[in-house]
Write a structure and sequence with these properties.
Elements lengths: L4 E4 L3 E6 L16 H11 L6 E3 L8 E8 L1 H12 L4 E9 L6 E5 L8 E10 L2 E8 L6 H8 L25 E9 L6 E5 L4 H9 L3
Parallel strand pairs: 4-9
Antiparallel strand pairs: 1-2, 2-4, 3-4, 5-8, 5-9, 6-7, 7-8, 9-10
């Protein structure tokens, strides 16, 4: 597959994951996933190392994902995530009309604290474009938090009923657009941005005010 590499050095690879791919295989389900595709390609090219995901994105979520070239650097990156040393932001299309231009959602998930900040980029008819920053990395955090405030992400089918949306979307309208962290080996500041993929820009083009 043509999966864009947006950053690479001797220790890390950052890719722009397309929607529709799991990061790792689901338990007892289809083994086709981004990690498997990447490592099969490396194997076929006789590359010695293997890539290890440092975090995950949902199957339907597109955007930036970090892989390590080896287990030791994976552990260092996962420590950065654990101690909230990696800044992440997403672009999401939310159902309905937001009443405020920015806000925060502080609501536990599975008994653990969870905090999301969001800023309105643009309000359109029946949906809002927002930038969202999850300060904690709980599973499905953005999906659950936006559902909680009454503005589920367009295309949501796991935590909301599609029949309840005024606007239909073919997939979850969530894109991992920004990453920033201090490289655990070089100590350099790494800042990576990703533009919206074509399916989401087409959606915006087809749903103008």
């Amino acid at each position: 597959m043509n999966i864009p590499i947006v950053y690479e050095d001797d220790w890390l690879v950052i890719l722009d994951k397309p929607s529709g791919l799991l990061t790792i295989p689901a338990l007892n389900k289809d083994a086709r996933c981004l990690t498997g595709i990447l490592n099969q390609d490396l194997k076929e090219r006789n590359v010695a190392y293997r890539l290890h995901p440092c975090h995950r994105l949902d199957r339907e979520t597109s955007g930036l994902i970090i892989y390590s070239k080896g287990k030791s650097i994976q552990e260092k990156m996962m420590q950065l995530f654990k101690f909230k040393k990696i800044k992440k932001s997403y672009i999401a299309f939310l159902s309905g009309t937001l009443l405020q231009s920015q806000g925060q959602i502080n609501r536990p998930i599975d008994g653990q604290s969870a905090l999301t900040l969001y800023t309105l980029i643009e309000q359109r008819k029946d949906f809002a474009i927002v930038q969202a920053q999850p300060f904690t990395g709980r599973t499905n955090q953005l999906r659950l938090h936006f559902k909680y405030i009454g503005h589920p992400i367009l295309g949501e089918s796991k935590f909301a009923f599609r029949k309840d949306f005024k606007i239909k979307a073919k997939r979850l309208c969530l894109h991992a657009a920004y990453l920033e962290f201090i490289h655990p080996v070089t100590n350099k500041n790494i800042e990576i941005k990703s533009t919206l993929p074509k399916d989401l820009t087409d959606f915006l083009e087809n749903h103008k005010n």
